[in-house]
Amino acid sequence: MIADILPSEVASAEAFNDGLEGPLYPEEAAQISRAVESRRREFTTARLCARRALARLGLPPVAVPPGPLGEPRWPAGVLGSITHSTNYRAAAVVRTADVLALGIDVEPDEPLPEDLLESIASPDECARLRELRRTAPQPVNWGRLLFSAKESVYKAWFPQGRRILDFFDADLTFTPEGTFRAHLLLTPLERELGLRADYSGRWLARGGLLLTSVVTLAPVRAPRAEVVGAPQGASNGAPRLGGYGAVR
Ligand SMILES: CC(C)(COP(=O)(O)OP(=O)(O)OC[C@H]1O[C@@H](n2cnc3c(N)ncnc32)[C@H](O)[C@@H]1OP(=O)(O)O)[C@@H](O)C(=O)NCCC(=O)NCCS
Fold it and tell me: Where does Mg(2+) bind (predicted)?
């Protein structure tokens, strides 16, 4: 399912009901030695998914231990993201030459309690969700979808920003057709450093789950000879946003 909202450059693997078998590396096993059974299962299956996804990129199996703030640590030259929800685990990986930012998230397709919505959504976002509830052709649990999309944005942001974002640091706008855009409120220093503030994502409601992805494709760099005389903006070095399945 997750592959349906990822571009072809991204390799992914998913598992239902912890149906994969395989060992953990010692540095991974050490992370869950005192964890409860449910956490051990989701952590282990997610690692097996990560290695399957890496293999789909043609890369050898490696340990994917968590870093100091919980972020998965990928081999050099690789970006990735992990998510789990009840009975569903997924991992997505890509070469950094192809993609600048990647985040995936999954949530149960259930309503978000109204008091929780107020703690993750700005008044503007709440108004946009009300409008979607009124106009979208299909009923969608928009509040829960917003939560998932913000988690995807956070996971995509983290490798460059390395700051825990507040839910109000991101302003999201959805379309009923399965896309969204996110704008991050950066600190003055982050702006000065040129960190990325705008992200685009895709979403999918299927099989009792809400899935979201955020991907920033790397700019296509035309060979030097082709740039001469090319139409303006054909390859301006800017990251490509939006419609990531169809860009190339
Ligand atoms: C870390 C967090 C994003 C996880 O999301 P979740 O929906 O609770 O859980 P998921 O199962 O989807 O994702 C868990 C995975 O996220 C990944 N993750 C954790 N911290 C991460 C980070 N800082 N950066 C990137 N990925 C991270 C891990 O791979 C983890 O799985 P693992 O522990 O098995 O390795 C969430 O718990 C959190 O801390 N959010 C606060 C920050 C935030 O999202 N703000 C909103 C900003 S707009």
Answer: 105, 107
Residue 211 alpha carbon to ligand 1 centre in Å: 14
User: Hey, whose CA ends up nearest to atom 44 of ligand 1?
Assistant: 151
Distance CA 118, CA 135 (A): 21
Conformational region of residue 77, where left means phi above 0, alpha means psi within -120 to 50, and beta covers everything else: left
**Tally of domains within the chain:** 1
- Ligand 1 centre and the CA of 221: distance in Å? 32
Q: What is the rounded distance in angstroms from the CA atom of residue 194 to the CA atom of residue 158? A: 14
Q: Identify the CATH number of the domain in which residue 157 sits.
A: 3.90.470.20
Ligand 1: atom nearest CA of 184 is 48
Whole-number pLDDT of residue 232: 45
Q: Decide if 244 is inside a domain.
A: no
| 183-226: pLDDT as tens digits | 999 999 999 999 999 999 999 999 999 999 999 999 987 666 55
CA distances from 138 to 113, 166, 221 (A): 20, 30, 39
Nearest atom in ligand 1 to 150's CA: 48
* pLDDT of 6 above 50: yes
Other residues' Cβ atoms within 10 Å of the Cβ of residue 82: 26
Q: Is residue 59 part of a domain?
A: yes
For residue 223, the CA-to-ligand 1 centroid distance in Å is 38
Domain extent for 24: 1-219
